[in-house]
Automatic annotation (TrEMBL):
It comes from the Bacteria. The keyword Nucleotidyltransferase does not apply. The lineage of its organism: Bacteria, Pseudomonadati, Bacteroidota, Chitinophagia, Chitinophagales. One of its GO terms (biological process) is acetyl-CoA biosynthetic process from acetate. This is Acetate--CoA ligase. Its EC number is 6.2.1.1. Residues 70-460 form the AMP-dependent synthetase/ligase domain.
Amino acid sequence: MSYPYQIRSLEEYRSAYQASVKDPEGFWAGIAANFQWRRPWDKVLEWNFTEPQVRWFSGAQLNITENCLDRHLAEKGDQPAIIWEPNDPEEHYRILSYKELHSKVCQFANVLKNNGLKKGDRVCIYMPMVPELAIAVLACARIGVIHSVVFGGFSAQSIADRIQDAQCSLVITSDGANRGNKQIPLKSVIDDALVQCPSVKRVIVLTRTRVPVSMIKGRDVWWEDEVRKVETQGNPPCPVEVMDAEDLLFILYTSGSTGKPKGVVHTCGGYMVFTNYSFVNVFQYKPGEIFFCTADIGWITGHSYIVYGPLSAGATSLMFEGIPTYPDAGRFWDIVDKYKVNILYTAPTAIRSLMGFGLDFVKNKDLSSLRVLGTVGEPINEEAWHWYHDNIGKGHCPIVDTWWQTETGGILISNLAGVTPEKPAHATLPLPGVQPVLVDEKGEELQGNNISGNLCIKFPWPSIIRTTYGDHERCRQTYFATYPNLYFTGDGALRDADGNYRITGRVDDVLNVSGHRIGTAEVENAINMHTGVVESAVVGYPHDIKGQGIYAYVIFNGTKTDDESIRKDIVQTVARIIGPIAKPDKIQLVSGLPKTRSGKIMRRILRKIAEGEFQNLGDTTTLLDPAVVEEIKGGRL
Ligand code: WTA
């Protein structure tokens, strides 16, 4: 299979872009024609950004797994679909051909059916990066069950919140996970979470680390036993559930500036078309190439560019269980060398961290198979860009700087590898079908170039968020209410003289720590749960490796031990309530917080102080207690 919609030159990009703006419905109908539908659409697009309501390909029917698996069997049945590299390089790798992946997905889908699941049910998946995670995801999609994957680094409380919100009836997990030289007891975390989750009737547990677990009678079953039952039934086929294009495919929780994480909802048809289109075009994937995305499937990047995008394109997707620094900081390069990876897609935070270990770990690794490099998740600074370009790409691999979000489902702004120009630290140009605008505070669209503003999108693309699960009003408020008739990204951006976008970062109270989205309000809530904490305020500050670090100002009047142990306890509390990824890097104990007379915390001031910028704090005389600013400045960590 080659891809008739793959853009091959700058001219082709320009004409595709123009066509997509002039006639979006015609444009996307032409691309969607390359997929397998059980029934064609009646209407390509219906939309308004006020309710909001967006429907792509309505009336059409399909199953995404038929497009990711079945349709490749005739020509690519023996080609690797998934290559899996274990955490421990001594353990044997695994290769699943399209045929094998198809049969394992059908088998596990039958397991899910035997356990009572049917179309529309919700399943929480909390698993390590093993092929069974991809199998579980696809098995859900095959029978119309909505998956909600939760990253393995989240705590019991975070899992419980997500399970309750989606009212999941089944959980798929494993005994434990390997991460570097650590083991994480996933099943026991699930046991803690489920104390609060009466909706869950069944837990399927995969064997991975063989750590002892407690299996609750009537609730918990082993993956392997369940699969054996299907085998004794003679491995019956598993016909796909025929889904409407706008039926829910999955829920993925992500942090916002207020409240608890929200369940971003993606649907079957549009998500399939756009993840495939963006995968094929941004990375310029050629059949037979090996694509290695280093993300975890627990995040949107893994959903779209380990599972659905590559597999729907019949690509070979490499999945890695471990971490970039185990057994040493050369691990990524060993993997590239071992499997002759052609396209490597990773995060700036990983690049910066590996940079810090020096070139010894890159030396003597054969990276000559690499053709395209990519980054995602946060702005990439020029130094990291050049290091990646020179030492990994050896000066000849284009780097795609891909900007997008959980809510956008796929890449919206990026250069197309080797086809449209790259520019260090710039995501550059929108993909066809994507219409970005920059607006000022009042929501006026800024015309022309060499400007900066808040980044919005003024027309729907096929994988735009449809709703936030169970709370449509929250979706409207968060994304469509700030500026009428625009989708607001929460990011600020510059547009240079040539129309290239440079994303400057969040303009709301969302932090981006090592490429992970964390809401300041969530971290504050977690800190405030610690006994003795009166109040707290959390801001981001520039961090050399993580991009942003977490700086917490805490008013504490509990039993006084020493400051250091108070800080440690608070960090532990945050790890328990949210997960280790949200641990504050710095905690400053203060006697008060700068507040306006109406009681609002002046985060702008706290942010400046955390950044070490004591000038231009603005007018502090109107604060309830101006003296507190001096105290905080004096105690900065
Ligand atoms: C940030 C990850 C600059 C941005 C796919 C966005 C980026 C948030 C880039 C979404 C990039 C993502 N350059 N910033 N190339 N890619 N971001 O939902 O602030 O985990 O709003 O999706 O990451 O994070 P999320």
